[in-house]
Design brief:
Layout (H helix, E strand, L loop, with lengths): L5 E4 L6 E4 L9 H14 L1 E4 L6 H9 L20 E5 L2 E2 L2 E2 L22 E8 L7 E5 H7 L2 H7 L3 E4 L1 H8 L10 H4 L3 E4 L1 E3 L6 E3 L8 E2 L4 H15 L5 E4 L6 E5 L3 E5 L10 E7 L6
Parallel strand pairs: 2-3
Antiparallel strand pairs: 1-2, 3-15, 4-17, 5-6, 7-15, 7-17, 8-14, 8-16, 9-10, 9-13, 11-12
The structure holds N-oxalylglycine and manganese (II) ion.
Length: about 280
């Protein structure tokens, strides 16, 4: 008899640990429905002690939607391009994946026409200290706003500008060439996103970049963005995950933001593999 599926909350605002599911095995439909409902309710799901081959990782993630090839090819898994490798490991002089990624608050693919619905990240090797991942519920943040503020922002749209993001997060780096915008066109996204499955609204801020708000002068948009970001990053909407090898986390990019933290890359190895689940245009 397989173990019963159980969900135990990870924090007040979001997250649940799932027991009784083995990611390496096919997920029967009734179990899928339970897991999917919990994913919608908790925003992130943690599965502990998992060992999966790349095929099994892909097969499990695919139950939640079609996968997308997310990344520049150098960080893709060599035989499964729909798997993204995040690692500081260097093999025969060649990095096996992206060594530094996501170390600021973001939602995956905020700048895409159809941002991914979710990501399933598996920790294969993790450092004993550092390398934690923070998650924050943007549904909880939205719900915490006053009705007046919600009404004021509900229809606003923001300009996701990847050049601005780069300058904001890495001010010490050289500015990208002027024609970078040809490759990275601005993307207008709703500031408040309606979840296509639950119908709940969430702040679709994706972090701390002072995005421009369409139709507002910076003198008005900047203080508004800062005020919203202050609410969004209140620790009470967060869960901090310290990884154990074998942990897998499925998060919902439509209503959760996340950020990686530093670790001692000279001393420790970190090796994470991510499947990215395709999603729809935000509204
Ligand atoms: C990601 C990401 C965070 C981490 O996989 O999208 O941001 O802790 N990862 O590796
Ligand atoms: Mn990410």
């Amino acid at each position: 008899m397989p173990a019963a599926i159980r969900f135990s909350p990870l924090s007040r605002a979001l997250g649940a640990r799932v027991s009784g599911i083995d990611l390496s095995r096919p997920l029967p439909q009734t179990d899928y429905e339970k897991v999917h409902a919990a994913w919608m309710r908790f925003g992130i799901l943690l599965f502990r002690d998992q060992a999966v081959t790349p095929e099994q990782h892909v097969a499990f993630a695919q139950r939640f939607g079609e996968l997308m090839v997310y990344t520049r090819s150098e960080n893709a898994h060599s035989t499964f391009p729909e798997l993204l490798v995040l690692s500081n490991v260097v093999d025969n002089g060649k990095p096996i994946g992206a060594a530094i990624s996501g170390r600021y608050w973001h939602t995956d693919g905020h700048f895409l026409d159809s941002p991914p619905a979710g990501s399933l990240l598996h920790g294969k090797e993790v450092p004993p200290e550092g390398g934690d991942t923070f998650f924050a519920s943007m549904t909880a943040a939205y719900d915490a706003l006053s009705p007046r503020l919600r009404a004021r922002i509900d229809a606003l749209r923001i300009v996701i500008d990847r050049v601005q993001t780069l300058r904001y997060h890495y001010p010490e780096r050289a500015a990208p060439p002027a024609n970078q915008k040809d490759k990275w066109p601005d993307k207008v996204q709703p500031l408040v996103r309606t979840h296509p499955v639950t119908g709940r609204k969430a702040l679709y801020l994706g972090g701390l970049v002072p995005w421009r708000i369409v139709g507002l002068p910076v003198s008005r948009s900047e203080p508004l963005m800062k005020a919203l970001q202050r609410v969004a990053l209140n620790p009470r909407f967060q869960y901090r995950h310290h990884w154990r090898a074998g942990d897998a986390i499925l998060w919902d990019n439509r209503c959760v933001i996340h950020r990686a933290t530093d670790y001692d890359m000279a001393r420790f190895r970190r090796m994470m593999v991510r499947a990215t689940i395709a999603g729809d245009a935000a509204y």
